[in-house]
Amino acid sequence: MARARRLRVATFNINNINKRLPNLLAWLDATQPDIVALQELKAKDSAFPLAAVEAAGYGAVWQGEKTWNGVALLARGAEPVIIRRRLPGDDEDGQARYIEAAIGGIVVASIYAPNGNPQPGPKFAYKLAWMKRLIAHAAELRAAGVPVILAGDYNIAPTEIDIYPTKSWDDDALIQPGPRRSFHRLVNQCWTDALRHLHPDERIYSFWTYWRGRFDRDHGLRLDHILLSPDLAGRLEDAGVDRDARGRDGASDHAPVWALLER
Predict the structure, then answer these.
(1) Where is this site: Transition state stabilizer (predicted)?
(2) pLDDT one-digit tens code per residue, 216-256
(3) What is the H or E stretch that residue 82 is in?
(4) What is the CATH number that goes with domain 7-261?
């Protein structure tokens, strides 16, 4: 009997979808992911390039924001069914950082967590409060007993091997104990960090700043994560980073992270 085709799920902080649309379309064509979570669209709703995305074979839902933030979900050959466009827990939070939809019987969220810099300060407090809201909502999703994928740019390097050996980031919000505790609290709800689960001891990065040749020197951080609910974790076959996408002309400072699931 022929083996069923696997489900390829990816998350990609595109860092301005219209500016980097050729990069996105080239990556979609080369890798053919089935489900894509995008972050940092940096485009208002009306500026989302739907025609180009549909021509590439994808349905889409998105939540835009002029200049900053913005999240989307793409589904190859299908239309995502929107569930929510905001993270619950704060009706006054207007930042476009969370979108959730049903795709092929799976609840998928695209997450763009706050950066939190400078810390300490109000932006760092917002980061911690936002993660607390995410933990609470993730617990509700787990309790519902449905297959769930929480994919995105969490703006947290969870452990020391998720950042290149350096002291230069010691004061950065991305590696502070508070955010790291928040990430571990989330994972400890029985979510599986797909990439780390399959590569427990390997230094694998998904983000390299544009400064000082950091990409060429592989001075990166792992900020982009795909978390799987238990029923999906049992179907996990492979995971990795499409590092080559970061090396293209006009690239985002992030590379796509992907996971392959048995259908």
Answers:
(1) 155
(2) 999 999 999 999 999 999 999 999 999 999 999 999 999 99
(3) strand 81-84
(4) 3.60.10.10
Domains of the chain by residue range: 7-261
Between CA 182 and CA 188 the distance in angstroms is 10
**What angle (nearest 5°) sits at the alpha carbon of residue 172, between those of residues 195 and 152?**
35
Q: Is 238 annotated as a binding residue?
A: no
Q: Is residue 54 marked as binding?
A: no
- In this structure, what DSSP letter does residue 187 have? H
| Other Cβ atoms closer than 10 A to 170 | 8
User: Is there a catalytic annotation at residue 254?
Assistant: yes
Residues contacting residue 24 through CB under 8 Å, at least 6 positions apart: 12, 14, 17, 38
Q: List the catalytic residue out of 137, 219, 225, 254.
A: 254
- Tell me the C-alpha distance between 130 and 89, whole Å: 9
Active-site choice (58, 98, 112, 205): 112
- Look up 112 and say whether it is catalytic: yes
Q: Does 155 appear as a known binding residue? A: yes
Candidate list 34, 153, 162, 224, residue with the active-site label:
153
106-112: strand order across its sheet: 81-84, 98-103, 106-112, 148-153, 224-228, 192-193
Question: What is the reported pTM?
Answer: 0.97
